[in-house]
Amino acid sequence: MPVLNRWWIAVAGVFMQMALGSAYAWSVFRIPLSKEFGWSITEITWVFLISWFFLGCTTVVGGLWMKRSGPRIVAMVAGLFWGGGVFLASFSANRLWWLYLTYGVIGGIGLGMGYIVPITVLVKWFPDRRGLITGIAVAGFGAGALFSAPAAGWLIQHVGLMPTFGYLGFAYAFVAIVSGGFMQNPPEGWKPQGWTPSASQISQRSDRDYTLGQALGTWQWWAICALMSVNTMSGLSILTQASPIFQEMGKASVATAAFLVGVLAIANGAGRIFWSWVSDLTTRKMAFFSMYLVEAVLFWLYHSIHALPLLAVVTFVLAMCYGGAYGITPAFAADYFGPREVGSIFGLMMLPWAFAAVFGPLLFAYLRQINGNYVEAFYLIAGTMTCALILPILIHPPRGRKSGDEHPSGAALEAEAEAISPE
Prior knowledge:
CATH class of the largest domain: Mainly Alpha
CATH architecture of the largest domain: Up-down Bundle
Order of helices and strands: HHHHHHHHHHHHHHHHHH
């Protein structure tokens, strides 16, 4: 198949991520499902949690499958699973277990396998802008609800609740499958014309491509998992309690708090692009250190903020920092372990992320419940972020080439070529 312009592949990747990221619009269905079938909010919320759990578990499956069959088939099958799961949910009237199976399990498998594809493909096409391009891709995932939520609300009013799942499932599958058809890896040895990595890029990249097993044998893999997980625990703790925080601390009305929560979704997406861009200008570790420092300072001060405008601004910044980790981490993994198997290497990082995404908000909510305020929870997060500042300082690329089937990374090949080339 002819090689496409890499920017068209990037556009297709964003569209695919938006189709998958429509899962963020689940809250639109909570009240209609409760009213029509009498299910509790907790029962309905479990649908979203199940889909997110399977997302975390199946990203590595998508990464390993891409290694064998290429990204296109994985992307298209993932789109079929996600859209098909949502479509089949249209037959779940009075059958909660069917909703769990279709939207939760089947749809969640599609989300996990599909989420990893554009990220893996684009880090290979954009070695010169790894951070920025992965930030744009994952920002597309966060932006999916901006379009799907209003569409779902309109369809529920005009065609009914269950048919809405059918229409949306078909639309999600169509967009994801068509976009997935554009997913292809660059030719072996490809690089942007006229580009050579800078000395700082070479110093912050591995000298070879690692397999998944080799990556797991390095402490750097676990350190990157910790970097993303700590950031996830702190960020999601705030985002999951944002509305009551605005109401209790900032004395916002319910409507104003709901509006500000919507604004935080924009901050989440913007942070994925902004911090990824920063990581290209500096380094991944410096960008993480800067995010952690900003979060630590703001969390130490958070409990004393009661003016709603200032509270909203501070929370907006924290939401940007939360989103930033999702843009930086795939590029971090590609830098440290090479782009060849980044799909499975980064995909497996989503497993500890899944546990952090559940544990952090649950602990935060528990501390709020037993103390009657958020002060202790804020201090706990601030202390955690302060201690975690040591992680980005200590981390560095794994070094030392071994015998066997390892492959030199693109950065290493460029460095060797420059070393032997005549002046």
